[in-house]
Design goal:
By secondary structure, the chain is α+β, with helices and mostly antiparallel strands. The chain folds into two domains: 9-277, Beta Polymerase, domain 2; 278-325, no CATH class. The protein is built from 14 helices and seven strands. The protein has a five-stranded mixed beta sheet with strand order 3-4-2-1-5. A two-stranded antiparallel sheet has the order 6-7. Helix 7 (150-174) packs across helix 8 (181-195), helix 7 crosses helix 10 and helix 7 crosses helix 11 (244-275). The longest helix is centred in the C-terminal third of the chain and has 32 residues, at 244-275.
């Protein structure tokens, strides 16, 4: 699929222009000032290539208990301050995740931040990758809330475009033979959620598309044109023209990704035990949010969360956190 010849180069060029314009406008859409100020404070003197904002904070706005979601894209692992171990782990099994807290205009805000190099971002949004997480995530709406310069913004934008084309290819292979654009995207996200270790409810994949139906409808055909997938249209329904052998090969390739998806997620969780900067404060916030129990995070717990965990868990058990109600 990734090497499919484009039979209509003029049509593909038009599709690239259309898709590029739509995504550039989306990435540049302004976000709340609180989000921008948070990012500027978090970056300090560091100069990554860019910062992408996505997730529930983008969809629903910033509330008192919102956990913001960011991806920081860097040129080199050394461009983001962290330990040598964290950099090496991020090079082997990306991304690393950190927890950040800032006070912005007197309001306490918090974020979960993932770090990737541009080369990793490019690879993980391509069709050949076995990891479905990145291209699925960034085929959904995101905002480039900070960039080093216009060249950096363009390089990140190219990866976002690639993520959409990759997602659309899999939507054609895994979706219905014919249907409305929403049916292809909903089928795609249902498959990606099933391939990952997720806690969301089963209907979550459908609600993604329902939130922005016109967006997904506008993006599908330009993505297919760039991938060299021809389309026939009957009324409002689309039919990607794919030979049966290509569909079958696609389903076999997807089965491999399903097999690898959850183990990859579990490996990242294991890695996070040693590389999740701010993990103790993140756990304390989650416990307070869900139980109302406040935990003071000592400097020792901040530096050695695994060693500090057993006595904290014991105190929480004594306070009844693990009892059924």
């Amino acid at each position: 699929m990734s090497r499919r010849a484009v039979r209509h180069p003029v049509q593909a060029c038009q599709a690239r222009t259309t898709l590029g314009t739509l995504l550039a406008h989306e990435l540049a859409t302004p976000v709340e000032d609180l989000v921008r100020h948070f990012v500027v404070q978090m970056l300090g003197d560091t100069q990554p290539l860019g910062v992408l904002f996505y997730g529930s904070g983008l969809r629903g706005g910033v509330g008192e208990d919102t956990l913001l979601d960011f991806y920081i894209i860097v040129e080199r692992q050394a461009d983001w301050p962290r330990s040598f171990l964290a950099r090496q782990c991020n090079a082997i099994l990306p991304p690393n995740v950190e927890y950040h807290e800032q006070s912005v205009n007197g309001q306490g805000m918090r974020a979960k931040v993932a770090i990737l190099t541009l080369a990793q971002f490019r690879k993980l949004t391509g069709f050949a990758t076995y990891d479905t997480t990145l291209w699925a995530r960034f085929s959904q709406p995101s905002r480039l809330v900070w960039s080093r310069d216009i060249q950096a913004a363009g390089r990140i934008g190219a990866c976002i475009m690639q993520a959409h084309v990759t997602a659309a290819c899999w939507a054609a292979l895994l979706g219905p033979e014919q249907g409305a654009p929403a049916a292809f995207w909903e089928g795609l996200y249902a498959n990606t959620y099933a391939a990952e270790l997720r806690v969301e409810k089963n209907g979550r994949s459908g609600s993604i598309v329902e939130a922005w139906p016109h967006r997904y409808e506008a993006l599908l055909q330009p993505c297919w044109a760039l991938a060299g997938i021809e389309v026939t249209k009957t009324g409002e329904e689309l039919r990607p023209v794919l030979p049966n052998h290509e569909r079958e090969a696609g389903k076999r390739a997807w089965a491999v990704r399903v097999t690898l998806g959850r183990p990859l997620n579990i490996l990242r969780l294991c890695k996070a035990a040693f590389t999740f900067a701010g993990g103790a404060r993140y756990a304390a916030w989650k416990i307070r949010r869900h139980s109302g129990i406040s935990i003071e995070v000592s400097p020792f717990a901040e530096k050695h969360p695994l060693l500090a965990a057993p006595p904290v868990l014991f105190r929480l058990w004594r306070r009844g956190l693990f009892r059924r109600r």
